[in-house]
Amino acid sequence: MSSRLLLKLYPAIALSYFLISQSSVYSSDFSTGYSSRYITEGRENLNGNGIATLYADLQWQSPWSVIFWHGEAAGSDYDETNIALAYNTTFSSINAQVALNKVYTDNTPDDEEISVTLDTSWRGVTFSVNSVYSNYANGYFHSFSALYAISLSKSISLSPYLEIGFDNGYANDTYDGHSHNQIGLNAAYNLQDKLRIEASIAHSFAGEDVKVSGQGDISWFSLALNHQF
User: CA 172 from chain center: how many Å?
Assistant: First the structure.
């Protein structure tokens, strides 16, 4: 990560951390990190450049939460900000979230998205379904994943996962269908009670939707520092 990128992100990191620590929210999740590539929907978004990110999830003593995500590209002039209002609830053993997300980017018009996420656990495996609609693209993207959390010790945990994605006019307006299959491994090391280092590696196998866009299989890694309040 370049020093220029760190200087650009540092004021936002410091301000966000201060606001979260001083707020009266019920709980919050704050992290800052770096990914070697910016991959979404099985696609490369920055022509091989990495991205530094800032994330905050503020949960009140109610079903509502506010989610903030900001990314600054390394090696190219690109930044993106997402601000979402989410409603969280539970049906029996199923957790559900409905979110309205405003997306601000440099290179494309602003976007409004609505997403629905359902997840449940069975024998240590967390199964998730996510569907998102983009107003700008006038299309949907659906993903299905399974994650297995393994606790190696009080400080170290590993979480291998599988994901499959399907595009319906969201990322590619000329082809609808299988987007990608992804495998990955998340790792976490607890430095303190609520402070941990997170790392992940992932590989995406391109489906026909990604291939007709001119892209293929891709691998990347991520590192982050996470603090919960």
Answer: 20
